[in-house]
Design brief:
Layout: E1 2-12, E2 15-27, E3 36-38, E4 49-53, E5 62-64, E6 74-78, E7 86-88, E8 95-97, E9 101-109, E10 118-127, E11 134-136, E12 147-148, E13 151-152, E14 155-158, E15 164-166, E16 168-170, E17 177-182, E18 191-193, E19 198-201, E20 214-220, E21 229-238, E22 240-244, E23 251-255
Length: about 260
């Protein structure tokens, strides 16, 4: 492979004086093999893009030249040299997921003698995963609150002056933040909600307000590896009773209205 320079001496019956002619011979390489990425080692489906979730496991990439007699090993690398989204094992193609994002995986295979090296590229996308973020029944965080389908059953508390209680959640990723708020459009005179999940009772729910006071909890993962998730919990405040005592004759009066 390369350029070679020779001199050709020309003599014929019309030219008895030798004539030297310089000649340059360029010897090139044979075309590279057609290296391609496939879904997996047993697949015949060629791919140029692969999508996985942040929480997926046993992930790998695979490139080969079908029917090749060249036994050189295919090697893998990240095109820009980054390691914050994935790392890839140089020879096995095993992928370690580090975060959400997109990178280009390059496969390279050395050509046989006199043959160009083969390369292929794969767009590799790691998508944010869904959180398993839930409301729990109490501070032990061991049991999810009752629900029908995707909707939580209404939490009912009894009115008492200056009464507070807490709602609890779990399942948010490490490093995420959880905040609580009264859902926009909810009545604002039944409860107030602290950002840490403390509920302050203001009044008992009126009949038209039953099921309409909603506390939203939102889990946010600043790394972007998990999608933000907001869950909703309806809260009804039922009327309580208070004892009003007259001398020798106490009576119970409904409170919270």
């Amino acid at each position: 492979v390369g350029s070679y320079h020779i001199t050709v001496t020309l003599i014929d019956k019309w030219n008895t004086t030798p004539k030297e002619i310089p000649v340059t011979i360029n010897v090139g390489v044979a075309p590279a093999e057609e290296l391609k990425f496939y879904e997996n080692k047993t697949s015949n489906t060629v791919i140029n893009q692969k999508k996985v979730k942040f929480t997926d496991t046993n992930v790998s990439v695979f490139a080969t030249v079908k029917g090749s007699t060249n036994s050189n090993t295919v090697k893998y690398k990240i095109k820009d040299g980054s390691s914050n989204v994935i790392t890839v094992h140089a020879t096995s193609g095993a992928v370690t997921i580090k975060g959400a994002g997109t990178v280009i995986v390059v496969a390279e295979k050395k050509g046989a003698s006199g043959q160009a090296d083969a390369t292929a590229e794969l767009e590799f996308i790691v998508e944010a995963a869904e959180q398993n973020f839930i409301y729990t029944t109490d501070s032990t965080l061991s049991k999810e609150r009752p629900k029908t389908g995707e909707k939580y059953t209404t939490l009912k508390e009894t009115y008492a002056p200056s009464k507070t209680f807490n709602v609890y959640t779990t399942g948010n990723p490490t490093g995420s933040t959880v905040t609580y708020k009264l859902k926009d459009g909810s009545p604002t005179d039944v409860i107030s909600v602290g950002p840490n999940g403390t509920i302050h009772i203001l009044n008992a729910s009126l009949p038209a307000q039953i099921g309409k006071v909603i506390v939203q909890a939102t889990s946010h993962d600043p790394s972007g590896s998990y999608e933000d998730k907001t869950i909703e919990l309806p809260i009804d405040i039922e009327k309580g009773t208070r004892k009003v005592e007259f001398a020798g004759n106490p009576i119970n009066v409904v409170s919270g209205s």
